[in-house]
């Protein structure tokens, strides 16, 4: 989509639940040189496996944290006058930082007029600002008017603060066209297989994550029998049930109770009753080959992360970042 623009990688939240220590070096080996995390602690963890990369910390400079940023050679994303002043006093032009400008999100960042007022202010030089950035509000919905307003505001900001490389496009923003690309792309969700164009096109990304869980037990139940806590599900006829070794303690959302599915031998098997902390019950009546020890797929094949998120009444981002610590992770390729 933008072959001449630097492509960074957003690896916050333990690389979207996929494991920072494995993911970040693989991306570096593929050519990535700039990485973004959310918190200082994530930056320190990233530095341990990325000795030479530029590591930006999106959530800014907490009071008194400057020495830790300097020790681990992390780049704070500064979003207020207070942060600018504190970092400038420490940096004195010797350590880099990014400037975050709010073009519509109303979360973090200087407002556009505040940032424009910094033109020719030596504070920017003293703070070592080497990247200008903002965050898109609704990039996944390309027809939303706010996209055009933000792109226009960011272009005006660049005119007011010339000579500073700039970054606006997140995963979905990359698909808004060249006006959103600037000098650095910041994909996150798309790197992990999520669909950056959910309202306009089929997912252009390859699947990355697969989640399988073994069947612990198969049982036959008569019509009228209930299953799971509070007997929320009642068998309409004789059914064959399978119990999986996974639950909401593993990050598989309880909100997917009676709305989600798993694939067994390629057949979509509904989740029955309430998802427990450690167990899920499936209806495998239509899968004669289902047996103890067989694997059920909860993410993978036609159950991509976006599909799983919708079934749980949430988004694929939450499914990914909620992947729990009890899973046995197996990495392929790279």
What's a concise summary of this model?
This protein is α/β, with parallel strands linked by helices and 334 residues long. The chain contains ten helices and 18 strands. The two termini are 23 Å apart.
Describe the global form.
elongated
- How much strand? 15-25%
Radius of gyration: 23 Å
CATH fold category name of the largest domain: TIM Barrel
What is the CATH architecture assignment of the largest domain? Alpha-Beta Barrel
Distance between the termini: 23 Å
**Name of the level-1 CATH class of the largest domain:** Alpha Beta
How many E strands? 18
Which structural category fits the helices and strands? alpha/beta
Major sheet summary line? 8 strands, parallel
Count of folded domains? 2
* Low-pLDDT runs: none
GO molecular function: alanine racemase activity; pyridoxal phosphate binding
Pathway: Amino-acid biosynthesis; D-alanine biosynthesis; D-alanine from L-alanine: step 1/1
Enzyme class: isomerase
Catalytic activity: L-alanine = D-alanine
């Amino acid at each position: 989509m933008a072959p001449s623009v630097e492509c960074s990688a957003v690896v916050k939240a333990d690389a979207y639940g996929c494991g920072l220590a494995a993911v970040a070096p693989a991306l570096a080996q593929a050519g990535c040189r700039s990485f973004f995390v959310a918190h200082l602690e994530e930056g320190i963890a990233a530095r341990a496996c990325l000795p030479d990369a530029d590591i930006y910390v999106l959530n800014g400079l907490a009071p008194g944290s400057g020495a830790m940023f300097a020790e681990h050679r992390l780049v704070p994303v500064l979003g207020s006058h207070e942060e600018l002043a504190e970092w400038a006093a420490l940096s004195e032009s010797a350590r880099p930082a990014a400037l975050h400008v709010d073009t519509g999100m109303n979360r973090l960042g200087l407002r556009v007029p505040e940032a424009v007022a910094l033109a020719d202010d030596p504070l920017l030089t003293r703070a070592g600002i080497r990247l200008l950035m903002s965050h898109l509000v609704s990039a996944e919905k390309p027809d939303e008017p706010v996209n055009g307003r933000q792109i226009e505001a960011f272009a005006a900001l660049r005119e007011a603060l010339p000579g500073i490389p700039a970054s606006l496009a997140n995963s979905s923003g990359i698909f808004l066209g060249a006006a959103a690309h600037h000098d650095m792309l910041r994909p996150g969700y798309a790197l992990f297989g999520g669909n950056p164009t959910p309202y306009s096109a089929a997912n252009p990304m390859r699947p990355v994550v697969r989640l399988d869980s073994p069947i612990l037990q198969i049982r036959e139940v008569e019509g009228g029998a209930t299953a799971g806590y509070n007997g929320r599900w009642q068998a309409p006829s004789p059914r064959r049930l399978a119990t999986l070794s996974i639950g909401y303690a593993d990050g598989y959302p309880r909100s997917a109770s009676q709305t989600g599915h798993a694939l067994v031998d390629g057949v979509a098997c509904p989740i029955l009753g309430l998802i427990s902390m450690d167990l899920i019950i499936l209806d495998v009546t239509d899968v004669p080959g289902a047996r103890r020890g067989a694997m059920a797929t909860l993410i993978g094949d036609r159950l991509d992360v976006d599909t799983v998120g919708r079934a749980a009444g949430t988004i694929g981002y939450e499914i990914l970042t909620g992947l729990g610590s009890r899973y046995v992770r197996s990495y392929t390729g790279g």
